Amino acid sequence: MSNSMKITAGQTSTRTLTDLIRAMDGQRAATITYVDSKGEESVRTIEIHNILTTSKGGIIVRAMCRTRGEMRTFSLEQIKAYTVHRIRFVLALPEGETVSVAHFASSVEQMIDLELERDYPWPKVSLAA
């Protein structure tokens, strides 16, 4: 991946999500331009450990922030630009924090299905009579 910043408004959210999932799966750091809930913009280098869907259908990124040295939550829609680096993760995860397992999906649709299944598992149904 290129080290130039990708502007999220210039591409689909699927493309942004795909790039961030690849960064997570490859344990590659990413630098993001993020606008917080107060409207303040900041640039952060993060190590993505989990990407989840909320009950309202939003997508959140759980990542270690190299600036803060802590696990943080970023809303995908508030990430305005990003770049994925070649450098690997260097921060230790806090105790008790969960991480995502690598995804092996052959299409965007399959990736979305995997994420939804992980966050909203179907009840187990027994077909035995």
Please give a structural write-up:
- The chain starts with 5 loop residues before the first strand and ends in a 10-residue tail after the last helix.
- A hairpin with a 4-residue loop joins strand 4 and strand 5.
- Strands 1-6-2-3-4-5 form a six-stranded antiparallel β-sheet.
- The model has no long low-confidence stretch (mean pLDDT 83).
- It is of the alpha+beta class and 129 residues long.
Low-confidence stretches: none
Main beta sheet strand tally, sense and closure: 6 strands, antiparallel
- The share of residues in helices is 10-25%
Arrangement of strands in the largest sheet: 1-6-2-3-4-5
Short structural description:
The chain has 129 residues and is an alpha+beta fold.
Supply the key terms.
2 helices; 6 strands; 19% helix; 36% strand
What order do the helices and strands come in, and which of them pair?
Elements: E1 6-7, H1 13-25, E2 28-35, E3 41-53, E4 59-65, E5 70-75, E6 79-88, H2 108-119
Antiparallel strand pairs: 1-6, 2-3, 2-6, 3-4, 4-5
